[in-house]
Amino acid sequence: MNPSPSADHGADDSTGSSSETRSKRGAAQPAILAAAKQEPASHVPVWFMRQAGRSLPEYKAIRGEGTILNAIQDPERAAEITLQPVRRYGTDAAILFSDIVTPVFAAGFGIDITPGVGPTCEQPFASRSDLERLRPLDPSVDLTYQRSTIDILINELDVPLIGFAGGPFTVASYLVEGRPSRDFAKVKSLMTADPELWHELCDRVADNAIATLTAQVDAGAEMIQLFDSWAGSLRPEHYREYVKPHSAKVLAAMADLGVPRIHFGINTGELLNDIADAGAEVVGVDWRTPLPVARERTGGRVALQGNLDPAMVLAPWEVLEAEVLRVLDDNAGHPGHIFNLGHGVLPQTDPEQLERVIELVHRVGRTDGPRS
Ligand code: CP3
Fold it and tell me: pTM of this prediction?
């Protein structure tokens, strides 16, 4: 039977500690935590980025009107949305229902999430005076809803909860561009024209990420992921100069908390070694880079997460099945593998296809040699 949230706990008796979750599970280390340390596990662990949300009918039924920032601030609803995919798929981890812009929203920078578009700001970040709109975050005051959501989840889950924050480039790109961008022209021009301001902006974004992630781990998250989704739009020298020091600072601040750290972006084939250098135990790989190439580029010093093309989940089962088996074969039974998509679940995904993917990975994936 797949791991699933236990049904016998209410929210009210929660004290929100991860040791409670661990004792409920017994002594065995969850497969996903073993994989993050490159240790063999009972099975190949799987979760899906953006596993909650738009592809699930049960999400649409409870999401409610308005922006998702409303749903995120409602702990009962946010906890339920986090649990939905764990229940349906039997994933090896839950990911907190939140967004990468939650910390900057909570810090008072005017930002919203426009349905069907993504994060938008009426007044994008343009000059030094805009730094004032990014005050330091105090999670015990600014993110009380996050704590309440995690308190509920820790009581309900018997798989690890993944906390997350946006990476410096990706969050700054929304602040500077004011909306999702294809070419990142404004953010790249600010970065190169005024490096001093850029570094101050990233410093504030990084501090807010550290505060958010630390609060998530204090509340009971057992892994964290830094989503620098769009960092792959930079050439390696620019990544090294403008972004990597800030990501490294976030990851270093998490080093002593004892939770595995995942560092993710798409289109990062040429950046993988730098991303591995920045300090996480696990590096996310998209479908453009085969896992053996990623392993070579990262020198085997990190575990890998990925890398099924999310569009293949829309293909007929025979095609999808072959793609899943190819990812497992590419990994060749290496213990340091967390199966995932190379990017988030597409909104038009049929959840039954993901159910079949997870069943297949759990059935045939091995962490001690080629698949059975
Ligand atoms: O299962 C989960 O992963 C849920 C939690 C989650 C959300 N956003 C909820 C959400 C996570 C981990 C994110 C991360 C996030 N947000 C990223 C990094 C992941 C990636 O895709 O690279 C990014 C870039 C964002 C910014 C963002 N927020 C975008 C681009 C969008 C899509 C806009 C749209 O409607 O197409 C959002 C909105 C969003 N965040 C939704 C969800 C479930 C959909 C909004 C809705 O239901 O209205």
Answer: 0.94
Is the separation of the CB atoms in 173 and 184 below 8 Å?
A: yes
The fold of the 11-364 domain, in CATH, is: TIM Barrel (3.20.20)
128-178 pLDDT, tens digit each? 999 999 999 999 999 999 999 999 999 999 999 999 999 999 999 999 999
What is the C-alpha to C-alpha distance for residues 137 and 104, in angstroms, rounded to an integer?
Answer: 8
Check if 50 is active-site.
Answer: yes
d(CA 191, ligand 1 centre) in Å: 25
Decide: 100 in ligand 1 pocket, CB within 6 A. yes
Cβ–ligand 1 distance for 113 under 6 Å, the answer yes
Q: Are 224 and 259 in contact (CB under 8 A)?
A: yes
pLDDT tens readout for residues 345-367: 999 999 999 999 999 999 999 98
Contact 276, 336 (CB under 8 A): no
End-to-end CA distance of the chain: 18
Neighbours of 303 (CB within 10 A): 25
Is 145 considered catalytic here?
no
